[in-house]
Amino acid sequence: VKLVIGIVRPEKANDVLEALYRAEVRGVSISRIEGHGGELDRVETYRGTTVQVGMEDKVRFEIAVSDDFVQPTIDAVCDGARTGEVGDGKIFVLPLERAVRIRTGETDSGAVTPVKS
Amino acid sequence: MSDVLTIAQAAFEPDTGDTAWMLTATALVILMTIGLGLFYAGLVRAKNALNTFMMCIAALAVVGISWAAVGYSLAFGEGSGFIGDFSYVFLKDVGFEPFAEGQTIPHLVFFAFQGSFCIITAALVSGAVVERMRFSSYLIFLVIWSILVYPVMAHWVFGGGFLFDRGTLDFAGGISVEMGSGFSALAAALVVGARKDYGRQALLPHNAVLVLLGAGLLWFGWFGFNGGSGIGTGNQSVLAFTNTLLTPAASLVVWFALDALRGRKVTAIGAATAIIVGCVLITPAGGFVSPAWAVAIGIVGTFPCYALVAWRPRTRVDETLDVLAVHGLAGFVGILAIGFVAQEAWNGVEAAELAPLGDGLLYGGGALLGDQALAALIAPAYAFGATFIILKVLGFITDLRSSEHEEAVGLDPIYHGEEAYPTGEGAILVTPTEADEAPPPAPPRVADPA
User: Is the Cβ pair B430, A41 closer than 8 Å?
Assistant: First the structure.
């Protein structure tokens, strides 16, 4: 079981969700974050105060998946989030020590396998 | 010649009460444009809130000048039945004497009051193209539209044009302002095209409180808009003022009921919309119908507008903020309503050469209904056609739309270099000397796939 973390542009978040859905990856949580990965191209001016925007808005996906699903998940996030410009984001894959589904007590692969309904 | 002028000036003493009210009413209508900015800004996504508001502010800037330059003259110069002339260009001969016989206020006040109408009408049209139109193209559009569309329609009905001569009744601009903006908006939405995510993703209002505040300010300003359209403090103005209280109230009640029946919840953004629908419904009829009929117009007229607001998002037409339903259709209903329920006993409109008495069909005056119907057909056709052609031609010369990338990022940072809700976290201060040496790099651009 792995934890896939994808940090993407907010305007691409919907495309990523769509791509994940197509890849049949169902369990997803997202959060709005601010981050900085090298791009420093936006300048804003408020009356006399000019600033370079250091932190850009990003959306972070956290997806726990069984090993078979790691590559499809990575592909889906890449497909959904890529524009080709600096600032498209990053994907990190982490080993996951344990996962528990609170409702049933299932663990690990069982906990991250979507419920069939 | 100068002696004659002096005598004429000396002979005219403005009515102080009328003038004081018209000065106030003008300021109230100017406030409406700000209220509209709040209303529109609340209805769009946070990343486009400033650009949307700026489209209204731009109307104050651009149209304020174009109105003084030629717009007013084309609307109120004598000219022909279709359009005015250049006799008042750059406020030539617009001074302290009244504009027309029978008016009790200085010409300058009349000019400013009418100018505030042209400004808000132009700002209204922006609701059709928010969140994707290029700001520079929009500014050019404003200049052309405020010269070729609004003044023509205002001339028809207020400036001695053919509808004016026929006796078509339009108290405060159901033709020029409401149908003018509503049907222009439809044309603009069709030419500029839908937002890239329209119909694919949920594009939701980002701040319903701004929407209600904006609608409230619009209603407040509308008391000057309708109440001032009698160009004084006479009976018609008083009637229109009170009707401006009653019709929106009736619209609100009906909208509450329809919301509750349809979704079991009374929505706030629906309420804000209802306020504007009610104000528009009574705009043409304000000074011509009894208070009881004003309530009836609010009740009956709200149904078609509600239906169009509910149906339009299911179509492919991204007329984003429903200017057609809220202004065009409500103005159309109001103009026709006059033909049925106007009462000479309330409005005191006397028959003239071509013009019938101010009685609607229910009070024995069938001729008036014909004139109203004529206006209700011609006004939408002109507004739609002229705006369609203007934007098509402009589209050949320049891009009307932002790129997909710009639309995705949001138009606030792209066109204004600001955000409505900046956090400032991690922002690096650029000192003035650094800024002088290194000009800010252009925002990233992705080649437009089209």
Answer: no
